[in-house]
Each structure stands twice: as C-alpha cells, then as structure tokens.
Amino acid sequence: MDKEIYERINEKLVRGYRDISNIEEKELRKGPFHDLSIKELHTINAITMYHHKTSSQVSQEMRVTPGTLTAAINNLARKGYVQRLREKTDRRVIRLGLTRKGRSAYRLHDSFHRKMVMSFLDGFNKDEISLIEHAVDNLIEFLEDKNHAAKQGPSERDGMQSC
Amino acid sequence: MDKEIYERINEKLVRGYRDISNIEEKELRKGPFHDLSIKELHTINAITMYHHKTSSQVSQEMRVTPGTLTAAINNLARKGYVQRLREKTDRRVIRLGLTRKGRSAYRLHDSFHRKMVMSFLDGFNKDEISLIEHAVDNLIEFLEDKNHAAKQGPSERDGMQSC
DNA sequence: AGATATAGTTCAAACATCAAAGTATTTGAG
DNA sequence: CTCAAATACTTTGATGTTTGAACTATATCT
After folding, report:
1. Where does the HTH marR-type domain lie (chains A, B) (predicted)?
2. Average pLDDT value for residue range A97-112
3. Is residue A124 within 8 angstroms of chain B, CB to CB?
C-alpha cells in the first residue's frame, strides 16, 4: 500500500485517539457532573444501566485488578453515583448498580458517544457504513490476535513449538 | 440512522479504544524495551525521529502541562532514550532529541502502528480507503469542534452572544 | 537599566494502579 | 458433618503520573 496514505491515516488515528479522552473530560467539566473524571465515567459506563454485574465482571471487562476497582467503587459510592448490592445467594459477591444520579451521568456520556459515532458515520449510506464497520472489525480482530499471542507468551507466538 | 447499527459500532469502537493501550503495552513488554511504559513510548513518539522540537511544542502536542513533560523527560533521559539539547540562540529553550536507543524504540512502536493500520485497511481498494479516511476525518472534525467550543466556554457555545 | 514576558524546572498534593496479604464465605473431599 | 481449598472482594504499601503554583534563568521591550 501507498506509504503516504499509511502515514496520513496513522497520523489521523493517533490524533483522534489522543484527543478523545481530553475532549470527553472537557465536555464533562462543563456539565452537572464536574466531580467526575473521565476514568470514573468509564467505570460508570462499564457498570451499565441495569445489569447489576458483579465486581469481578466489571474489573475483568475494564482490564484492571480487583483492588483497583474496589478503590474506584469506593470513590463513586462516596460521591453517590454507585451502590454496592450484596448478593443474597452468595454473600461473597457484590453486585454493582448505578444510583439515579449515576444513571443520569451514564446517559450524558452515552449521548456524547452517540453524537461522536453519528458524526463518524455522517453522510454515508447503508453499504458504505457496513464497509466502515468492516474496517473497524479488522482492527478489533488484529487486536484480539495480538492479545492471544501475548497470553501464550512470546516463545510460542508462531509455530507452536511446544510438545 | 438505525439505532441497532449505532449501538454495534459504538460498542466496537469503545472496545477497540480500550484495548489498544493494553495490547501495545503487552507487545512492548515482550521486546527489548521492557523498561518503557506505553506512556513513555508515546512521549518518544511525540518527540519524533529528527525534528528536535522544543519542550513546549511537545507538551502542547501531548496535551500535558510543562511540569508533566519535565518529569517524563527526566525518566527517559535517565534510561537513555532521550537527550536534552540546549538551544544556542535562546538559552531558555530546550530541544528534545532521541538517542540511538530512543530511535530504535520509536521504530519498533511505529512498526506496530503500521501493522495495525494495515490491518485496519486490509482488503480495501483505493476508493474504499478514501471513504474510510473520510469517516476518520469526520471524527477528527467533530473532536475539533468540541474542542473549540470548550475553549470558548460553555456560555458561548452556539450563537456567539458576546459583544 | 529595569520591568515584563517566556521557557523550563521543582515541589507538594492528589489520584490510579498493582501485587500481595487479609477477610469472609462457599464448596467439595473424606 | 467437618475442615481444607477455592472464591470474591478489600486492605495495604509502594510506584508512577499528573497537576498547579512557585521558582530560576534568560530574553525582550521601553
């Protein structure tokens, strides 16, 4: 492929990637939830509206250790965004739920995402959108491959020498 | 637009976004530069191969405060990836350069990016690629709009009521 | 020359993160 | 049934990143 095109698209992706968090945080600061950081908002987002996932589930999805999540939940509970709900049938597990305020923050963040994705896809027809989705799928697949390779360890990356 | 399509693409973008840093870091740990974090690598990337940008330039591009960059450069210099070069004509300014080792790390990271972008665009022809690029442009434009709106302050977002 | 501006550094505080040890609870083997 | 092992989460201590504000050194402007 053309080197120039690669450079240009790479540069744009890097720029977009770098700016998203910054801008999400700035938007956040303007609204009624100025006591939330972007990371806290992402935790709220991972908890989701009504699923009452367990702590373990959320920490795995977020790729952080259980201890990290505990600390994050402590803060969000103190600020009134999240509630811990102890499971009746197995008292070891904690289920996480958003308070009314938490759901409100969730919706605000979601509407930002909606606007962002809408503008990403603005002006394309169904076929073109599915082409773009295919490119995104390519990217995710690439990341998943790398992820599995990393899990197996570097020595077995290609060719499965073990056994 | 179709709500279902939005949900699906949003979910994929969020997942991709979340995984990129994790996987870049994992890849990094496998190679010869295991003493670098992903943030440090991004600093090296912002310094670029041969431009000798000033500290201010780099900190602005990275959207961090000058103090943050100083700390990062201290670490990278200690580890032998970056050199400070004092400007002859204006002794206040520091220009930043990569050492041989720093350039080597830069290249490794760049090759990861290259593979990632290549897989993103895999299987598309020129026209299709320029369509995808257009979508990325849309996204960047959205972010820039939001960024300017944020700079002006929330009260003047739309309609320039001042004066 | 002296005031002001600019470039970068230092410092103290806040926060996120992790690994490892700890607590409470459940499960499973005998 | 009982106790050892497993599981779910929390606590703790250490590390690294980030910021804002005060600071140093240098340049520019009047």
Report:
1. 1-141
2. 94
3. yes
The per-residue pLDDT for B148 is 75
Nucleotides of D under 7 A from a protein CB: 7-13, 16-22, 25-28
Q: What percent of chain B has pLDDT over 90?
A: 72
Nearest to A22 among B1, B8, B63 (CB): B63
Angle between helices B3-30 and A3-30 (to 10 degrees): 110
User: What pLDDT does residue A1 have?
Assistant: 63
For the cut 60, the answer to whether the pLDDT of residue B147 exceeds it is yes
Domain boundaries, chain A: 1-34
CA–CA–CA angle A37, A95, A43 (5° rounding): 15
Query: Tokens representing B136?
Result: 């990325």
In this structure, which topology does domain B3-114 adopt according to CATH?
Answer: Arc Repressor Mutant, subunit A (1.10.10)
Q: Rounded to two decimals, what is the model's pTM?
A: 0.85
